[in-house]
């Protein structure tokens, strides 16, 4: 292993004193020049560029990291003693030397030191570096907000912001009225999912949110201090000291709070974790996004197009713990959270709207609302708004009791006359708002009432739309059992596809149910039918928006979709006859996951809509068709380039199909793509703005849903300000992709080149993963996949079947494990070989021509540019030196050398290919924010890797024990927190 670049060297020196050492002065820091280098001899990690910038630009971030590191160091000294602190510092120093200088002596010293640590010592050290990763995230989040605020104050709009998106749309000659009209027919929805890589405990999240608020308060203290520069300021030092003491309190709380759960996470736990993001961000920040948009457009009353979705509680695919009971629990808790938020806001409105009838007039409708209130308190007899709001509160309290069994915190009058649906509550609020506006009180509505109205429009009484999902083979098994029990078809599963379709269409035309009264059905059939029945009940209880989508995983045939319709019919979610007036409540959403599935997506949907009655059924039921595209499994199946290319092709084919189906129709069926993206690039992750703009031409059209998974949920939405910015980015990208002139289809040479790259890339990927003997053993040995499977971080099993076959492993832990060992293989493998093969060994002129073609594709084609940008980020986060440490855990030396050599060779091919095409000699040359993140956090993630490998070595050697296992699991948490987009 050789030296890293001078840029990396400088990056280490900027932060290496952070962990508890006295902070260097700003003056000293600014003396040190920022350098870049185009020359590196390192082969252990991708050299990361350092952008030249003013020395003070990132100084607040450095200061925050040092402050938090010093506080953590003080807490460690106080709680664990000076020896533990010194041990942490020694490991950090050796780890930095190993990375920065490829110091073999430091490498040997580090290995010997780690081998000599007791389990207790190791756990304490791992906790120290893990918490530092968490604290560094908070500092980085604060700096991101700080820099964005500075840009806003300077009137600078960046890509991905609403001001920039609207400016581009206005420049294209599109009016605000046209934008409002487009949004009236749009549907944009991030969908939160629970997966086995979500490792944060809510207790930890709550403490970290408190620290984030204290960092914000510290900036505010500094801003106030600026007003006293050159004057005496006795208050600022006191405020800083109080702020730091509160931080110390919260860091102590973190240190004394266990990172891990003692028991495996349940679905109910996952539901509660997800709800914490609604409390922290969505309930207040989504209304702000709407308000910002209305202000920018000068338009009121924009239709509610941005809504939240949720899988937790309804996603049964591979998770036997999700049942009708968990679905009912999810919706009950969601409703309770929304209603309690509304109750709080109505309570505060009552305090604010103390307007007296002796001084103001109210509308006739408002007066009637006040008179209907059961509030007879003589002290409020002249206060119509307060009386009305007391009545509204009592109705909401009764609604809370009816829907959830909960009790409101306050009762001015007894709960009574519950609202039957959210629209009634909304009507009362609008009566109050209209009266205020009409009678010169509009300013009184703007701060609290208008955001509340927007919240009710978006969240209703259900909070978020819960999707139902199940695998197609489970549906087939239930339908087969129903038919066999009813003596209609003894061997449904054995029928040919055409025969299945004929039978299913006949059954959909028959008004009679299939179930036989008092017949004994299997637990699977009972459970599946119970979910459908619970969906019908829940829609009636919480509103139709509570459940709208039924996702069929592993959609491979048309009958997979018909089976889902038949099961809806069985419980009354589909009513009427297919050949007459049938309507169904849940949109049947095919999920195309593997490479083959993606290639068959358009043909399957064409055959589905060619069936008699299907198109008419969809139009009568709302004229919406969602199609979900799976990024994770397609990547695991065919590698990064082929996965993305087939997703692109599938999108184009589906749009062409629905354009054809809608030709001449006055009420066209709206196609909505649902992108099953994960946190890692290998699972479709990466910047959402770039990803949306890189979609095939015509595939957005104001309609998009996308999953938010793993650690990305926390990094995007745990902080309110960052959460709002991410939601704004989603809206901005959708507007640009929908309203700006549609880009022309990719030129034929681009398409031909992409197809050739896809074929070669998939071949190289599958040669390694599926055709190399022993690769499964290598993967299970050189990554912490076995330990991840035992970690109590999700309710879903890590593997579909207990085996070492890659085919049986879920895509989520597959990607997560590669991230933990710092190879990030799913995000880049195969591309280098594809480029090498595409360029060929022919004449220099031909090679040069092909190279020029690739460079034009990068410059002119958003799809290609975004994909390469994501690979660039993934390679920057990879580290072959650390990965080689994990490879040492593979017992078979020949297998270890063979597989790691293949990976290492392809890593260099891919890095060289990116340089050849983009011209960037170092990674992240065009991504200053990511550069900053990498150089500030990686020196403190490295020790976690070294410690994790040592503990895994002991654990697999039989040196078991609860403390040892806990150390491994904490290290997994720390690495995930440090890398951030690992889920």
Sum this structure up briefly.
With 983 residues, the protein is mainly alpha-helical. Helices cover 62% and strands 5% of the residues. β6 (574-575) and β7 form a beta hairpin.
Could you please describe the fold and organization of this structure?
With 983 residues, this protein is mainly alpha-helical. Strands 3-2-1-11-10-9-8-5-4 form a nine-stranded parallel beta sheet. It has a two-stranded antiparallel sheet with strand order 6-7. The protein is globular. The protein starts with 5 loop residues before the first helix and ends with a helix. Residues 1-16, 22-43, 50-55 and 680-685 have low confidence and may be disordered.
Q: Helicity range of the residues?
A: 55-70%
Q: Can you count the helices?
A: 39
Main sheet: which strands, in order across? 3-2-1-11-10-9-8-5-4
Largest sheet: 9 strands, parallel
Query: What integer value in Å does the Rg equal?
Result: 29 Å
Shape: globular
Instruction: Compute the average pLDDT.
Output: 89
What's the end-to-end separation, in Å?
A: 29 Å
Structural class, from secondary structure content?
Answer: mainly alpha
Number of strands: 11
Strand content: under 5%
Sequence stretches where pLDDT stays below 50 over 5 or more residues = 1-16, 22-43, 50-55, 680-685
């Amino acid at each position: 292993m050789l030296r890293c670049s001078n840029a990396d060297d400088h990056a280490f020196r900027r932060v290496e004193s952070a962990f508890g050492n006295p902070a260097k002065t700003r003056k000293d820091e600014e003396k040190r020049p920022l350098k870049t280098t185009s020359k590196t001899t390192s082969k252990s990690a991708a050299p990361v560029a350092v952008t030249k910038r003013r020395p003070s630009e990132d100084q607040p971030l450095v200061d925050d990291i040092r402050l938090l590191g010093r506080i953590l160091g003080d807490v460690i000294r106080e709680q664990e003693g000076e020896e533990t602190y010194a041990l942490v510092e020694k490991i950090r120093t050796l780890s930095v030397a190993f990375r920065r200088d490829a110091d073999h002596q430091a490498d040997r010293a580090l290995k010997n030191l780690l081998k000599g640590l007791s389990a207790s010592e190791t756990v304490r050290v791992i906790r120290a570096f893990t918490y530092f990763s968490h604290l560094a995230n908070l500092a980085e989040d604060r700096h991101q907000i700080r820099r964005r605020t500075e840009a806003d104050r300077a009137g600078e709009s960046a890509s991905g912001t609403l001001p920039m998106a609207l400016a581009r749309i206005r420049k294209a000659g599109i009016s605000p009225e046209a934008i409002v009209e487009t949004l009236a027919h749009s549907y944009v929805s991030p969908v939160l999912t629970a997966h086995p890589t979500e490792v944060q405990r809510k207790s930890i999240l709550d403490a970290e949110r408190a620290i984030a608020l204290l960092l914000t308060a510290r900036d505010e203290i500094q801003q106030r201090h600026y007003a006293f520069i050159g004057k005496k300021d006795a208050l600022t030092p006191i405020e800083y000291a109080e702020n730091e003491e509160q931080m110390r309190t919260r860091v102590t709380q973190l240190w004394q709070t266990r990172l891990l759960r003692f028991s495996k996470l349940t679905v109910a736990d996952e539901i509660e974790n997800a709800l914490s993001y609604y409390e922290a961000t969505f309930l207040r920040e989504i209304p702000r996004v709407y308000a910002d948009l209305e202000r920018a457009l000068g338009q009121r009353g924009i239709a509610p197009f941005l809504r939240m979705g949720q899988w937790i509680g309804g996603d049964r695919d591979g998770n036997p713990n999700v049942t009708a009971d968990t679905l009912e629990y999810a919706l009950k808790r969601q409703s309770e959270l929304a209603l309690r938020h509304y109750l709080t806001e109505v309570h505060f409105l009552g305090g604010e709207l103390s307007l007296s009838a002796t001084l103001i007039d109210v509308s006739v409708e408002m007066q009637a609302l006040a008179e209907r209130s059961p509030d007879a308190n003589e002290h409020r007899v002249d206060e119509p708004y307060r009386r009305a709001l007391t009545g509204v509160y009592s109705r909401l309290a009764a609604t809370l009791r009816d829907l959830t069994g909960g009790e409101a915190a306050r009762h001015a009058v007894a709960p009574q006359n519950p609202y039957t649906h959210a629209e009634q509550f909304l009507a009362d609020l609008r009566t109050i708002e209209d009266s205020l506006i009409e009678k010169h009180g509009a300013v009184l509505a703007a701060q609290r009432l208008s955001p509340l109205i927007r919240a009710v429009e978006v969240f209703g009484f259900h909070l978020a739309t819960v999707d139902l999902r199940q695998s197609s083979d489970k549906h087939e098994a239930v339908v087969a059992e129903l038919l066999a029990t009813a003596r209609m078809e003894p061997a449904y599963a054995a029928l040919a596809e055409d025969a299945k379709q004929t039978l299913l269409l006949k059954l959909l035309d028959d008004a009679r149910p299939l179930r036989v009264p008092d017949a004994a059905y299997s637990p699977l059939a009972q459970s599946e039918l119970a979910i459908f029945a619970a969906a019908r009940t829940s829609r009636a209880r919480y509103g139709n928006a509570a459940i709208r989508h039924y996702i069929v995983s592993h959609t491979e045939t048309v009958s997979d979709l018909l089976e889902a319709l038949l099961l809806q019919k069985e419980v009354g979610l589909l009513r009427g006859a297919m050949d007459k007036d049938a309507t169904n409540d849940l949109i049947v959403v095919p999920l195309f996951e593997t490479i083959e599935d993606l290639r068959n997506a358009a043909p399957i949907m064409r055959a589905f809509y060619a069936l008699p009655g299907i198109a008419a059924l969809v139009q009568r039921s709302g004229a919406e068709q969602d199609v979900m595209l799976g990024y994770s499994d397609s990547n695991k199946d065919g590698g990064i380039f082929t996965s993305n290319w087939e997703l692109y092709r599938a999108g184009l084919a589906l749009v062409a199909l629905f354009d054809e189906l809608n030709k001449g129709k006055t009420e066209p069926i709206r196609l909505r793509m649902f992108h099953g993206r994960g946190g890692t690039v290998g699972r479709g992750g990466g910047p959402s703005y770039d990803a949306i703009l890189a979609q095939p031409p015509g595939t957005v059209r104001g309609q998009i849903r996308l999953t938010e998974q793993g650690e990305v949920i926390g990094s995007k939405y745990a902080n309110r300000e960052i959460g709002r910015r991410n939601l704004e980015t989603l809206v901005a990208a959708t507007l640009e992709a929908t309203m700006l002139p549609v880009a022309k289809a990719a030129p034929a040479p681009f398409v031909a080149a992409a197809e050739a790259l896809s074929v070669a890339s998939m071949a190289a990927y599958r040669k390694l993963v599926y055709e190399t003997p022993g690769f499964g053993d290598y993967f299970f040995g050189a990554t912490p996949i076995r330990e991840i499977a035992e970690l109590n971080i999700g309710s879903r099993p890590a593997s579909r079947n207990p085996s070492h076959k890659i085919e049986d492993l879920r895509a989520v832990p597959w990607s997560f494990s590669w991230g933990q060992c710092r190879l990030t293989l799913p995000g880049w493998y195969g591309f280098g070989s594809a480029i090498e093969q595409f360029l060929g060994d022919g004449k220099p002129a031909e090679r040069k021509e092909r190279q020029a073609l690739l460079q034009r594709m990068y410059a002119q084609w958003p799809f290609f540019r975004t994909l390469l940008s994501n690979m660039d980020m993934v390679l920057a986060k990879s580290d072959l030196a650390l990965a080689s440490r994990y490879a040492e855990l593979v017992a078979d030396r020949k297998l270890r050398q063979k597989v790691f050599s293949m990976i290492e060779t392809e890593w260099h091919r891919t890095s060289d290919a990116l340089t050849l095409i983009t011209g960037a000699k170092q990674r992240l040359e065009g991504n200053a924010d990511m550069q900053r993140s990498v150089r500030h956090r990686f020196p403190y993630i490295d020790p976690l890797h070294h410690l994790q490998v040592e503990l895994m070595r002991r654990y697999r050697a039989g040196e078991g024990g609860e403390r040892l296992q806990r150390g491994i699991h904490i290290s997994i948490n720390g690495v995930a927190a440090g890398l951030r987009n690992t889920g």
